[in-house]
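Reproducibility note. Readers wishing to regenerate the assembly model reported in the main text can use the exact inputs given here. Chain order matters: entities are listed in the order in which they were concatenated for prediction.
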Amino acid sequence: MYYDIVFSSCNIDGSLVSRLGFSKIGVIPDSIAFLDLEKQGVGKERKVIASGPAGKLISAANMGVAAVYLKGMEADKKLMASLADNGVALCISLSDITENDGLRRSHTIFKAGRLLSSARKNGVDIAFVTLARSRSSMCSYMQIVELAKLIGAEESYARKSISEVNGRLVV
Amino acid sequence: MMREKHRYIAVESGHAVTEPERDDFATGLRIALMRCIGESNFHMVNPRVVEFLNDNTFILRTSLAGCGHVIAALALIKRIGGRDAYFYTLGASGTIKALKKKRM
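Running the prediction on these inputs yields the following structure tokens for the assembly.
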């Protein structure tokens, strides 16, 4: 049972979901709210992925969002502690890696690896999701597992993340 | 001599590859994979398009050890021969027969 989260601009259908090997794909904003904290505050939606800089994500974590997406992927100790205390998952967006190219992609992989390592040290749950905005950025579950391995996760950890952590956000 | 173990991957292409384009496409894909995997590792992975199932789906053969590299690389390729492209891996297996059965 694997899960992913994408934006509604991907126009996914049931056939694509099963071809890619997922049980379900969560769609933003249809089933999951995505809040850019630089533009808006946390509302009363049930499942929220908050996006923004570390400082704003700490207060969002305290307000009970389901997951956060850290722009720039800069690891922050206070944020990690806050996410661990509140049981909030950290989304690592794989489309940040697939949509870049060359040295920029290499740098993004490095930053994602550092963020993953910092999150795991602090006991934060990781959600490997594509957060794709177009079909070209979407991946099958096999590709997500391999990209997670590319940034330093073991296969068993990646699979557990895609099924359990992503499942909590999607189902 | 030990027989090399292969892995077969079913791949869906984001755009249709018609019959006359297939040889050029296969060459372009190998070049794009080499860029992602790196020249030094490419000979170990040795990916090859072995069969087209239809205009959008084909089977790629790799070495057993290089299968993961190819699956990750397929997520990173966004252009082939000056044309936008993207790929989804649909399944992997040790034989073509098992892979086709899995896809049915």
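We highlight two features of this model. The radius of gyration of chain B is 13 Å. Helices of chain B lie at 22-37, 39-45, 67-76, 96-103.
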